[in-house]
Amino acid sequence: MSEQQSLDKQIISQVAERSIANQLEAAEQIDIYVETDLLKIVQGQADGVTVSGQGLVTKENIRVQEIKLQTDRIDIHPLKAIIGQIQLNKPVNLIARVTLNETDINHALTSDFSRKLVQNFELEVEGKIINFDLQQMQIVLSDNKRMRLRGKVQLIENGHSRPLGFTAIIRPRTHSYPIMLESFQCTEGEGVSLNFLVALMQKFQDLANLPSLQWEDMQLSIKNIELQKQILILLVEANVSQVPDSIMELTK
User: What is the band of 3 on the pLDDT scale with cuts at 50, 70, 90?
Assistant: First the structure.
């Protein structure tokens, strides 16, 4: 590699770091390496991007303790990128290792984004649809490889709602074991029927067996979940056909 090529990559990587940092509310540390040159970048191309960051906080005040991300070849629309509209000409594959701590997870669960995810959750019980309206949620990450959830939701059926408080214990998926819902207990409200629990368990099993999850234009696959005391580490693979609108909104 010539000195000029090395300088090109260094300059482009530094510009990318400043651009990403400006789109975040805060960043303790962020390092970006773009494998490209000036000719390719003018054409909107890069052979790959590596991102390493700590203490990243989005405009929605959601914090990631640490992230390490690697993409394959990127091909974007260069003119739209200049005005801040990132449009991919070809899908991009990436793999990421994301570290979250318990405090940051519980803070994120209070965000509008998290509430919207739960509001999209529904069960079919005896031919009737029951929706969930999240009131509160707390996660405890213990050192016995278990995740304890404490929460309160409003169950909405035929326009009527009623409260339900619960605790659940989950053993996350690893390379060796599938995800397991080990217990579910009602702590507030009138409780739930056996048919509700059967439908909930079936829904949980269906979600756990999905090879990947679709979120807007991203196909996500969680390959492994590692639990430490008050720490959650996710290994995620994704195929991105377009940068999701919701992410673009977070960076405005």
Answer: low
